[in-house]
What does this fold into?
Amino acid sequence: MKPVRLAILGLGTVGGGALKLLQENAAEIKRRTGREIQITHVGTRRPRPDLNLEGIKQSADLLDIVRQPDVDVVVEVMGGIHPAYEVISEAIKHGKQVVTANKALLAEHGNELFKAAEDNAVQIAYEAAVAGGIPIIKVIREGLAANRIEWLAGIINGTGNFILTEMRDKGRAFADVLKEAQELGYAEADPTFDVEGIDAAHKLTILASCAFGIPLQFNKVYTEGISKITAQDVKYAEELGFRIKHLGIARRAEKGIELRVHPTLIPSEELIANVNGVKNAVLVQANAVGPTLYYGAGAGAGPTASAVVADIIDIVRDISYTEDGAGTIPQLAFEALADMPILSREEMTTGYYIRVNAEDQTGVLADITTILSRAGISIDAIMQQSRLKDLIPIVILTDPIVESKMDEALAQIQALPAIHGEIVRIRLESLDN
It folds into this structure.
């Protein structure tokens, strides 16, 4: 069989890692696919003397590369939405198979790109777009294909997990740990995508589409970051037997699908609560197999390149064994997409950690509990902390309640004359069933 010819667009951390992996493991990959994989083009704007580019054509004209007849598969690892969208669209138009690690592009424009791929009988493979080296897309689409997915919850941003781990283990402030994360290369100079949950929301959008068969709907993901989490709340949560993690959660509910990214209290004995540092993990609840947990490196040259090359191998196998090249990698089946609404934040149901700073006077706690009771909110635990200056922190854990009722109750509590400062609200989940 003739070789399958690749163009790798972008030679940064991931692109360079994929090129090296394809070269170093060429014999093993050929054994698994039954044919040679040949890198014919790379799209790059700068020299890479550290890479072996002998015999490979180099160009900064990406649109020209994807039009070339000696390219069968386009590997897009540039990141960003533009020009990646235009380049992938052009590749699809010219009948090229596509591998991408671009979660932002797929979350925001995936519906259009998958439809174009379907119309042109080509594939888009995207394992590397979510959770790096963890093969979570394959798990959901293939390993759990016989199951109805009830919910999934993931630590899917390593930067945020590193920050929260350091805050818990060492009692450090958010800003202090963020600075270290930037120095270590875990966080960008502008860390907004990581610490405010945007990166995790992109990934959750893709996971939910795979799990529930719904269109990609990034604009409907409720997203809340970790920049307001204090060492004080991390400490109180620990005293109550919980850990704070920045989770992406997708859940079937009675009236639709919950899509949310936010700081979350999890019981400290649960496995996912003990995923620390820059590691990722995704917990999936399926009706037949029950809960399963997938853990590993969520970023970096090796893990992400591993996922990219795995997708390349799948596509090469499909090119070998299918006549039209459309392949067997599952795509969004537009005629079969589930028509399930995405719930608004106010319609979502979860438990809560609430902290108020109150004056030390008789009747304040009674006023708070009365407001919660009238709203139909059950209290699971109450803890009064040591006085801070002239105020007493009161921490309350509640049973699950629809968020609109919690909004109303907290507005009434905030209006009490004895309450000072903004009320802290962190959602609470038990993920053991």
